[in-house]
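Researcher: Checking consistency across runs. Here is Transposase again:
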Amino acid sequence: MAAPLAGWPSMLDDYKVHLHRRWNSGCTNIKQLHREIAMQGFRGTYWTVYRYLAPFKGSAAPAAVPSPPKVRHITSWIRRRPDNLDADEQVKLKEVRAACLHLDILRGHVEEFAKMMTGRHGERLDAWIAAVRTDDLPYLHTFANGLERDHAAVLNGLMLPYSSGAVEGKVCIKIKFLKRLMFGRANYDLLRKMALLN
């Protein structure tokens, strides 16, 4: 029976260090190990654990390398305010930023843009776009292109105290209500007509 392919994500990734440590300390009862990681939050089956550990029967398991953080976690850490991260998240973000120059630069740009938004510093927009253009971040360049296309609107959004959030919220609720009302039986054209006429 072959072990899972190296490099492929597995639902066991967060539990491998524990499994290897316990296996090498002499606990080779796979049912017991499955119970232990289930108590830690593992939602997979016994057979997942069995298939992973079976190749190690009769020998020691190699040292498990802790799995790298998931993309959604890194994205969350980059988007949140630094003071809203707990100590463990701050350490992990620091490690990620040290390991990848592009993510380090991206975090800096995201942080500066957030300061512009929360402090209404629209006067910094052009300097921010120019700084983004100097770095090798193609997807951020695409975002900057969109900001330049709607420059006046973005500038007003970053400087004026007004918000269209309430209106957009009502429109979103109305569209969702109409979609549920039609229960998937209508195409986009009918949905548009109903939204405009109601």
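Researcher: Does this match what you'd expect to see?
Model: One thing to look at in this run: The chain has three domains: 1-67, 71-159, 166-197.
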